[in-house]
Known about the structure:
The structure holds two protein chains of two kinds. By secondary structure, chain A is mainly α. Helices cover about 50% and strands about 0% of the residues of chain A. Chain A has one domain: ACP-like (Non-ribosomal Peptide Synthetase Peptidyl Carrier Protein, Chain A). The mean pLDDT of chain B is about 95. Chains A and B meet through α2 of A and α6 and α12 of B. Flavin-adenine dinucleotide binds next to β1, β3 and α12 of chain B.
Amino acid sequence: MIRDVIREGGGLAVDIATLGDGDDLYAAGLTSHATVNLMLGLEEKFDIEFPDRLLRRRTFESIEAISAAVTELLDEKVAA
Amino acid sequence: MSEQLQRMRRVGADIAAKHAGSVDAEARFPHEAFAALKAEKLLGVMVPTELGGAGASISEVVALCHALGQYCGSTAMIFAMHQIQVACLVRHGLQSEWHRAFMRRLTSEQLLLGSATSEAGIGGDVRSSICAMEVQGARFKLSKNATVISYGADSDAIMVTARRTAESPASDQVIVPILKSDYRLEQTSTWDTLGMRGTCSIGYWLHGAGDVAQIMPLPYADISAQTMLPTSHLTWSSLWLGIATDAVARARAFVRAEARRKAGTVPPGALRLAEAVNLLQLMKSNVVAAARQYEAALASPELLTALSFAVAMNNLKTGTSQMAVQVVNHALLICGISGYRNDSDYSVCRHLRDAHSAALMVSNDRILANTANLLLVLKDDPGLFP
Ligand SMILES: Cc1cc2nc3c(=O)[nH]c(=O)nc-3n(C[C@H](O)[C@H](O)[C@H](O)COP(=O)(O)OP(=O)(O)OC[C@H]3O[C@@H](n4cnc5c(N)ncnc54)[C@H](O)[C@@H]3O)c2cc1C
């Protein structure tokens, strides 16, 4: 699901299918402008909201990192 | 006042101010002021003491820019642009032998660093590059069509941004200092502008080469967000404040002279002067608060890489750049025709022309658009004190 959101909103220079989960998305062309789109896409898709503490460049550096953040937010939602 | 700041005030009053008129009129590099700044060892103040510098904090550098801005806007802008490059080296080059050696040279020889981030074909979007590093073994080459390299002809080294490799996307950039002996500049434009005329911000094709070890290890994206943007906005804002401060000082002198001439009455300009002083205080509070915020963020990667920090620094720049023009314009109205004359002690013409560069030196519209985008995800901050 995360890969779908990146394909739609990430504006990458390469096809997301060619990237591994740990690959650097910024090296693949993710810009800080597109990061915001990506975040909005994830919030919509997973019905979550990124708190300010996660609004950092490193949160979106790889599919792995994004996945960790989304999982954390989904867990918090269940706990709440 | 720190001893460093006293030295800066001396250079400003004795030298920069004396030549400000001819630097502006002839659109020439402020040679006299830079000879003095080098003699006073003020170019390497931010470098750590173990590498020969003074280990100055960002607040201290901001205070130096503010002081110099009161004497000559162009000289202060060149000093600020140089310090921004030094800040990048100091913050991100201490782990690298090449950069440590370079900082040692910078302090002992008082090297002046220029910057080539803007490029033909990308407008002012400095977070994109067209040119790319061409690496062969341990050496690199690069050619950049730089639309503006301020004081390029008088720089001893230039920090250049480029795509990491010929295959990298436009946003995957590195930054590298290139030494004067390793680059060739081919002039592509002239610099006959409204203001900031002494910065000699001419366009060049830069053809450079060097060792791969010179490339800063961290991606430019991080260096830009953590250091180049905040230090640019802080040093620029403080020198714009310096320009505005001197304009208000002239307006104040004008109003006082009027008051003395007609003792017992409050001169008509006094009210507007009160407004100008009020605006100046707002501007100063902005700069001081942002400098404190940056210093607090330096101690915490969390704060430094947060979007809210980027928004605060953006706001500093768009806010102070507009206020500088507003304040100088008040001073002009107060001094009237005396302020409008180029040849009067109350002249604020150069101040006004220099201040107008602030909004376009990285376009305010571009910065506001960036902030607008970040605000789509950033939450409100209901607190008062950080
Ligand atoms: C005194 C001075 C010294 C300088 N020195 C240097 C230097 O040493 N090295 C260096 O590399 N650069 C330097 N610059 C260049 C500076 O960093 C900016 O790149 C440059 O001023 C922007 O030029 P621009 O107005 O053509 O570009 P743009 O930013 O492209 O702006 C052009 C116009 O388009 C609008 N616009 C464009 N894109 C957007 C957008 N995304 N959102 C909203 N509006 C947009 C702007 O509002 C503006 O009206 C210097 C500039 C000045 C004024």
